[in-house]
Amino acid sequence: MQTPLLIIGNKNYSSWSLRAWLLLKAFEIEFDEQPIQLFDASALPILKEHTPIGKVPVLVCGEGEHKVTVWDTLAIAIYANGFLTDKDIWTGNLKSEANKDDNRHRIDSAYCQSIVAEMHSGMTGIRNEMPMNIRAAAKIEPSNACLADIARIEAIFADCLKQRSADSYLFGAFTAADAFFAPVVLRLQTYANASGLTLQPTTQQYCQTMINNPHMKVWIESALKETRIITEDEAGEIVSVTGVLAD
After folding, report:
1. Residue 33, H or E segment
2. Helix ranges (DSSP H) in 27-102
3. Can you tell me the distance from the alpha carbon of 24 to that of 28, in angstroms, rounded to the nearest whole number?
4. Are 129 and 143 in contact (CB under 8 A)?
5. Which terminus of the chain faces fewer neighbouring Cβ atoms within 10 Å, N or C?
6. What is the torsional sign of CA 81, 82, 83, 86?
7. pTM for the full model?
8. Are 68 and 4 in contact (CB under 8 A)?
9. pLDDT digits over 197-242, tens only?
10. Model confidence pLDDT, tens digit, residues 29-50
11. What is the pLDDT of residues 68-85, one digit of tens each?
């Protein structure tokens, strides 16, 4: 089988790209990576060839009459779960070992799918006011809508992590939920402290667990090497900058 191709945007800014990239990495799905420049004319021919909506990420599997193109992060997750991994992305367990009559399996799978869909389709307050900007610390004045999203996110983390070890992922093993909330972790790192927002201890611990994830580290290191500034994704008063732009 030909190695899938994942088309992604700038790592400092592209939260949707991070979700798909991290999911494939975490579930040990081999793929080639093709970065494009967001909001740049050079990206248009590549996107036009593979997606009708002109956005990243895009997963391309096979070629010719066997070519399968998947755009949208949630669609990529569903396709990967169905065809590219022996693990269940909703529970993190091997599919061959899953007992679908087991109540815990059904509860965790349904909960994971629900919060992934909630993140995917909503929480526009935090999306709009806290765009992912890994290299920066920035101060904003969050609206009530943004604060409500943060409160909801903290409630999700607290509910998932209750009675789990301090360094646990949301469902114990890494799942799609961790991939979909990864950009939130990076948003909070950029804006929370600089904006005087106090996060719950459980949220702080989970954020650190995600930052320590080896694949997240690779993504962050790559983001800090980027030099392009995209004004559309810059928000708030920049307090500090790390990476090559800080030199």
Report:
1. strand 32-35
2. 44-50, 73-83
3. 6
4. yes
5. C
6. positive
7. 0.97
8. no
9. 999 999 999 999 999 999 999 999 999 999 999 999 999 999 999 9
10. 999 999 999 999 999 999 999 9
11. 999 999 999 999 999 999
Which tokens sit at 22?
């991290």
Show the CA angle centred on residue 46, arms to residues 40 and 48, nearest 5°: 95
- In whole angstroms, give the CA distance from residue 239 to residue 56: 29
Cβ within 8 Å of residue 207, ≥6 positions away: 185, 188, 189, 199
Model confidence over 179-206: pLDDT tens digits? 999 999 999 999 999 999 999 999 999 9
Indicate the residue type of 28: E
Structure tokens of 175? 């799942």
Look up residue 8 and give its two tokens. 């992604």
Contact 68, 155 (CB under 8 A): no
Q: Please, are residues 1 and 7 in contact by the beta-carbon 8 Å criterion?
A: no
pLDDT at 1 (0 to 100): 66
Q: Is the Cβ–Cβ distance between 147 and 29 less than 8 Å?
A: no
Side chain identity at 51, as an amino acid letter?
A: T
Residue that is written with structure tokens 């494009």 in the block: 36
